């Protein structure tokens, strides 16, 4: 059985956050982002996503939707 997790670290202070999930669905990713930002005290001025599948997949989905719509 796999365990999926999201981890964040503030660059300046080094404060970290991690949360585990039983699946790698979008709802877990979004919950992880929201939980992490809440735990870390808000949204930092700058964010870097590393090894992140969902934003890229969502961006490509939007591109495909636009191409289909405008054909």
Radius of gyration: 15 Å
Q: How confident is the prediction overall: mean pLDDT?
A: 81
The proportion of strand residues reads 15-25%
Unreliable residue runs = none
Helical run tally? 2
Give the biggest sheet. 2 strands, antiparallel
The count of β-strands is 2
Could you spell the SSE succession in H and E letters? EEHH
Q: Note the overall shape.
A: extended
What structural category arises from helix and sheet content? alpha+beta
Helical residues, percent: 40-55%
Q: Termini separation (Å)?
A: 43 Å
Order of strands, widest sheet: 1-2
* Quaternary state of the chains: single chain
Question: How would you characterize this protein structure?
Answer:
Helices cover 44% and strands 17% of the residues. By secondary structure, the chain is of the alpha+beta class. The N and C termini lie far apart (43 Å). The mean pLDDT is 81. The protein contains 2 helices and 2 strands; from the N terminus they run ββαα.
Can you tag this structure with a few keywords?
single chain, 71 residues, alpha+beta, 2 strands
Give the SSE map.
Layout: E1 4-9, E2 16-21, H1 26-39, H2 54-70
Antiparallel strand pairs: 1-2
Give me a quick take on this structure.
The protein is 44% helix and 17% strand. By secondary structure, the protein is an alpha+beta fold.
